[in-house]
Write a structure and sequence with these properties.
The complex is a heterodimer of chains A (about 120) and B (about 170).
Chain A: H1 12-34, E1 41-46, E2 49-55, E3 60-66, E4 69-76, E5 79-85, H2 91-94, E6 105-107, E7 112-117
Chain B: H1 7-30, H2 45-55, H3 58-77, H4 79-101, H5 107-130, H6 136-164
Helix pairs in contact in B: 1-2, 1-3, 2-3, 2-4, 2-6, 3-4, 4-5, 5-6
The chains are: A alpha+beta (about 120), B mainly alpha (about 170).
C-alpha cells in the first residue's frame, strides 16, 4: 500500500542531509580542537584595527575605548577575559576566560575581538 | 482555509504575522537560555516567516522578513544587531524559498536548513565586520544549535499549518 508522504515528516534523503550537517559541524569542532595551539600573547582588535599585543603571563587590566562604548579586558593567571562592558547584551563578558586559540572573545556591538595567539 | 484573495486580506494577514513575529521575538528574549555561543537564539520569529512562505508566498514572506528585522532592531536590539540579523535572515530566506518551491521538501527540513543558513549568514557577517576569520569554532557550534532550534520552530510552523489546513497540506 503506497503511503502518502507527509509534508511534516522529513524524508530519508532529508534526514541524511541533516546528518551531513551534523557530521560537518562535528568535524569542524574536532579540527579546531586538534589544531589548537596554546598561546602566550593576547591580541586585541578594535574595529578591524589592531589595538595592541600583551603577554598572557603578565597580569593587567585594560580599558578599551571603542567608538560605541567601553570594554574592560583582564589578563590574570595566564588567562584572559572580558571583565566588564557597557554593550547591551554583555555576551562578551559571559563568554568567560580563554587561554588558547580555539575561540576568540568577541564583543559584536563594539567590534572588539580578544584573541590568544602563539608569539611570532 | 482558502488562499487569501483581495489585497486587503493579504495586507491584514501580513500585518498580523508581522505583529506576531515581533511579539515572538520579544517573548523569546524573556526566556532565559544558556549562553552556549554568542548569537544563539531560538528564532521563534522565523516560524512566522516560514509560515508566510507556505501560506502567503515568497513576496509577502520577504516583506515580512525585512520588516521584522528592521523593526525588531529598532525596538529591541539596536543597529549593530541589525546587520547580523539581516545577513542571517536574507541567506536563510533565500534557501528556504528555494526549498519551498520544490514542494517535495518537508516543513521541518526547510525550517532546520533555514536556521542553519541563518547562523551561517550571521557568522559570515561577523567575520567580515570584525575582520577576523577565527570564528570557525563558533560557526560549528551554531550549526548544531541551528538544527535544534530549527526543528523546534519547524514543529511550531507544522502545527499551525496543519491546524489551518493549508491547501496542499491536507494530511
Amino acid at each position: 500500500m503506497p503511503q502518502k508522504k507527509s509534508p511534516f515528516l522529513p524524508s530519508r534523503r532529508e534526514i541524511f542531509m541533516l546528518l551531513g550537517i551534523v557530521c560537518l559541524a562535528g568535524l569542524l569542532l574536532l579540527a579546531v580542537r586538534w589544531g589548537a595551539k596554546p598561546g602566550d600573547e593576547v591580541v586585541i582588535t578594535v574595529e578591524q584595527r589592531e589595538y595592541g599585543r600583551f603577554p598572557l603571563s603578565e597580569n593587567r587590566v585594560l580599558e578599551i575605548e571603542a567608538a560605541d562604548g567601553m570594554n574592560v579586558v583582564e589578563i590574570s593567571d595566564n588567562q584572559v577575559h572580558m571583565k566588564s562592558a557597557d554593550c547591551p547584551d554583555r555576551l562578551c563578558v559571559k563568554m568567560g576566560f580563554i587561554h588558547d586559540d580555539i575561540r576568540p572573545i568577541v564583543c559584536l556591538p563594539h567590534k572588539v575581538v580578544v584573541e590568544v595567539k602563539p608569539r611570532g | 482555509m482558502d488562499k487569501p484573495r483581495g489585497s486587503l486580506h493579504r495586507l491584514a494577514l501580513l500585518a498580523l504575522l508581522l505583529a506576531l513575529a515581533l511579539i515572538l521575538g520579544w517573548v523569546e528574549s524573556l526566556i532565559p537560555l544558556p549562553i552556549l555561543v554568542p548569537g544563539f537564539k531560538l528564532g521563534l520569529g522565523n516560524a512566522a516567516v516560514l509560515f508566510a512562505l507556505y501560506a502567503q508566498g515568497r513576496r509577502d514572506a520577504f516583506v515580512l522578513l525585512i520588516m521584522k528585522v528592521m523593526l525588531s532592531s529598532i525596538l529591541f536590539s539596536g543597529f549593530s544587531a541589525f546587520l547580523y540579523a539581516l545577513a542571517g535572515g536574507l541567506l536563510s530566506y533565500l534557501v528556504m524559498a528555494l526549498l519551498v518551491r520544490r514542494e517535495k521538501s518537508s516543513v521541518p527540513f526547510v525550517s532546520m536548513t533555514g536556521a542553519v543558513c541563518h547562523n551561517i549568514g550571521q557568522v559570515a557577517a561577523a567575520a567580515l565586520l570584525l575582520g577576523t576569520p577565527h570564528l570557525v569554532y563558533v560557526l560549528a557550534l551554531l550549526l548544531l544549535c541551528g538544527l535544534v532550534t530549527g526543528s523546534l520552530t519547524g514543529l511550531a510552523a507544522s502545527l499551525i499549518l496543519k491546524r489551518l489546513n493549508f491547501g496542499h497540506f491536507d494530511v
